[in-house]
Amino acid sequence: MDTASESPGASSRRRALVTGASSGIGAAAAAALAAGGCDVWLTYARDEQGAAATADEVRRHGAEAHVSRLDLGDAGAIERLLDEVAGRWGELNVLVNNGGVCPYTPADEISVAEWDAVLETNARGTFLALRGALPLLRAAAGDRSVVNVSSVAGELGGVATSVHYAASKAAILAITRSYARLLAAEGIRVNAVAPGPVRSGITGKLSDEAAAGLTGATPLGRFGQPHEVASAIALLASPAAGFTTGATYDVNGGVRIDG
Predict the structure, then answer these.
(1) Which domain holds residue 197?
(2) Domain containing 173 — which CATH number?
(3) What is the dihedral of CA 204, 210, 213, 214, to 10 degrees?
(4) Between vectors from CA 124 to CA 123 and to CA 129, what angle results, nearest 5°?
(5) Is 259 inside a domain boundary?
(6) Hey, which family's this protein in (predicted)?
(7) Which active-site residues does the annotation give?
(8) Residue 139 — φ and ψ, nearest 5°?
């Protein structure tokens, strides 16, 4: 599923790694980054066909595309992926931590095993991918950027979503702010986007009643589209946002408005 092999450092295009890119926000982000001049390495957890379709869209923008299966709950798998990226590219300009899980389980029914699985995949997976990618980001010239995909649930708490999902997304915001401080002196920027209700495989699991309730609670009166979040990701990942780090970009239709 890869394009032709290329030696590290040979490309004049920027290089981006996007996790969870077989559909939804991740797929839209991969396409937006490709349109903006990035080669893209994308990962998927289960939907190989969706990942292949995303890679085709990336290539339609004239970009190089690579596809790898990744279980973000498996620390060894994250390390192996980054070793593979290092061997092929040797550097990264952009890391988008988008992959994650969102079970809709009532709080009093969440088992210890499910709690751990959600936090390990969403929060620990983001941390390990970011920390593990640092040598690749440090090896790249010019603007380097990490964009972590959180959620309005991480800011307000779970409403339609579950407690463990909200907790994991709040942790991602703390990881973002911590690494923004740690890496600022090196010129590596770390920001987050916090989507509200967006059409995706995750929100597709909602009942009609729950989806209608979310729509009614959104001031703009609709669900967002993946490309609307991807536009924010692409902006934060680009040199155009070169003075922005430690920020959370809300893309939520007005669900959360700070005064």
Answers:
(1) 14-251
(2) 3.40.50.720
(3) -40
(4) 105
(5) no
(6) Belongs to the short-chain dehydrogenases/reductases (SDR) family.
(7) 165
(8) -80, -15
